[in-house]
C-alpha cells in the first residue's frame, strides 16, 4: 500500500517526463541547432554558440525575408479563398436534408483519400498548361485545395449547429434572407468559421509538396527554404527557418485566442 | 388600430407525399384570441408556421385584413411570432434583441432606445437593457421574446406554445398576464397549445385540430360542454364513455353513447330519477386532494367516479351522473344533435 503510494507519483512523473521528452525533445534539438556555430559528430552538445548563421539567413540576398513574406501572403490568401467558398457551401450543405448532405460531404472528402503526391503532380501538369506554375496564384490555389475540404466540413458543422429558429425569428420580424444571414447566422457561426480559418492557415504555413511542384523554383516559401537547407546539410539554416516558421503560427494563434476561447472551439459541430 | 382579421381558405400543406394540413378554413375576428389546440402531430404548429410564411401552401389562401399573405415571404407579412424556444439572439443584449426589428425598419438610435425602454417598462423588466439574454430566467426570456414581437406593433401575433417551457407556477401567472396584455393592446392573437386547460382559460375561440383537420371551432364553453365528437371529448377530459341502455335518460335524443367527466360521476349522491346509473365492483381508489377517484368495473366498461369518502376495493358501488352532465353521441360518434363545425363568435 505505502509502496504503491510512493511509487505511483514516481511512475506518473516518469511517464510525464517521457511524454515531455518525446514532444519537446526534437524542438530542443532544433533550438540547439539554431544557435550552434560548431557541432560535429562525437560531441553531444555544440562546441560553439552564436548568431552568425542568423545573420546569414537574414542577409537580404539569402531569401528568408521573401520566403517569410510569401508564406504569410499565401496562407492569408488561401484562408480568404477557401473561406469565401466554404461559407456559402457550408451554409447550403447545412440546410440540406441529412442523407443528401452526408453523401455530398463524403464525395467532398474523397480527393483527400488519395495519396496527394500524384494529385499534386497532375495539378502541376495542368497549371503548367495554364501558365500558373511558378506564380503566387498557382501556389495559393494549391494551398486552398486541402484547406477547402477542412473549411467546408467545419463550416457545415458550424452552420448546422446554428438554431434555425434564430434565423426564422429575424425573417419573421422583417429581415431579408441576406440580412438575417449576416446579422444572425454569421455571428453565431463565427467561432467555428475562425476555427476553420486556423486550420487552413496552419495547413498552408507548412505545406510543402504542392508548393514544391507548383511553385518551385520561382516561389520559395519557408518550408521549401528549410528543405533546401537540410538537403544541403545546412542544419543551422534549417533550424533557424523552422523557428521562423513558428512565428506566423504562434502569432495567428495569439490573435485568434484573443476572441476565441477553447470552450467556444469545443462547441464546433455540436 | 393595428389589429386585423385573419382568414384562411382551403389551406392545404403537403410534406412530400404526406398531407399535413387538409383544407383548413378559419376566420379570426380582429382583436380576438384564438387557440389552436390539439395533440402533438395534429398540424397546429404547421398551421401557425404557414401563417407566418415558413411553410409553403400546396393550395389555399391566407388573408390578413385586406392583404393576401399567401405568396409573401415571411419578412413582408408583419405577423410577429413568439417561438417555443423564444429564439432570442444570444449574441445580442436585451436591448439589441428588442431593438433589432426597429433597426430593420430604419428607426433612429434614440427613438429605438426610447421604444425599448417603454417596452421593458410594459414587461416590468425596466433596467434590463444591458443584460445578456443568456443570463435571463425562462420567464424573463419569454417576456423579452414577446416584447420583441410586439415592438413592431404588428397586426397579428403568433404564439407557438409560448408557455410550455416554463414551470407550472410561472405558467399560470403568465397566462393571465399574457391575456391582459393582449386585451389591452387589442391585437389579434393566435396561440398554439396542446394544453386544454390553457386554451380554455385564455381563448375567445378554440380551434380543435386532429390529424391535419379542424374538428371544431367554438368558444371554450361550447367546446367543453359539447365536443363535436368522441375523440374531441376524450381530448377535453371526458374520460368515461358508456353505451346507452333503455333505462338511461335522454331517450328521445337518439344517443348511442354517453360521455361524462369523472368529476360529474358521484358514488355518494342521493338517488335521483333523471340520472344515469351504473353498478360495478370497485377496483381502485386513489386520493386526489379534494376527494377520491374510484375506478369501477361494470360489465361493459371501466368507469371513473368521485367519492368524498374512501371506498374499499372489491366492494360493490353505484355511480350516478346527472342528466345535465351527460354528453350524447350518435352511432357515428358525433355529438347529438349535430353541431355546426364553425360556430360564429359574437
Task: Briefly summarize what is shown.
The complex is a heterodimer of chains A (270) and B (346). With 270 residues, chain A is mainly α.
Overview of the structural elements:
The complex is a heterodimer of chains A (about 270) and B (about 350). Chain A contains twelve helices and two strands; from the N terminus they run αββααααααααααα. With about 270 residues, chain A is an all-alpha fold. Chain A has two domains: about 1-50, no CATH class; about 55-265, MetI-like (MetI-like fold). In chain A, α3 runs antiparallel to α8 (about 175-205), α5 runs parallel beside α9 and α7 runs antiparallel to α8 (about 175-205). Chain A is globular. The relative contact order of chain A is 0.13. Chain B has eight helices and 17 strands. Chain B has two domains: about 5-230, Rossmann fold, CATH 3.40.50; about 240-330, Nucleic acid-binding proteins (OB fold (Dihydrolipoamide Acetyltransferase, E2P)). In chain B, β1 (about 5-15) and β2 (about 20-30) form a beta hairpin. Chain B has helices at about 45-50, 95-105, 110-120, 140-150, 170-185, 195-200, 220-225, 230-235; strands at about 5-15, 20-30, 35, 60-65, 65-70, 80, 155-160, 190-195, 205-210, 215-220, 240-245, 255-260, 275-285, 290-295, 300-305, 315-320, 325-330. The interface between A and B is medium-sized, with 18 and 26 residues.
Strands of chain B, total number: 17
Q: Provide a count of the helices of chain A.
A: 12
What does the radius of gyration of chain B come to? 24 Å
Unreliable segments of chain B (pLDDT under 50, ≥5 consecutive)? none
**How much β-strand is present in the residues of chain A?**
under 5%
What is the helical fraction of chain A, as a range of percent? Answer: over 70%
What is the helix content of chain B? 10-25%
- Give the full name of the CATH homologous superfamily of the largest domain in chain A: MetI-like
CATH topology tier name of the largest domain in chain B: Rossmann fold
How much strand of chain B? Answer: 25-35%
Structural class of chain A: mainly alpha
User: CATH topology of the largest domain in chain A, what is it called?
Assistant: MetI-like fold
Widest beta sheet: strand line-up of chain B: 6-7-8-3-9-10
Protein name (chain A): Putative spermidine/putrescine transport system permease protein
Subcellular location (chain A): Cell inner membrane; Cell membrane
Keywords (chain A): Cell inner membrane, Cell membrane, Membrane, Transmembrane, Transmembrane helix, Transport
Family (chain A): Belongs to the binding-protein-dependent transport system permease family.
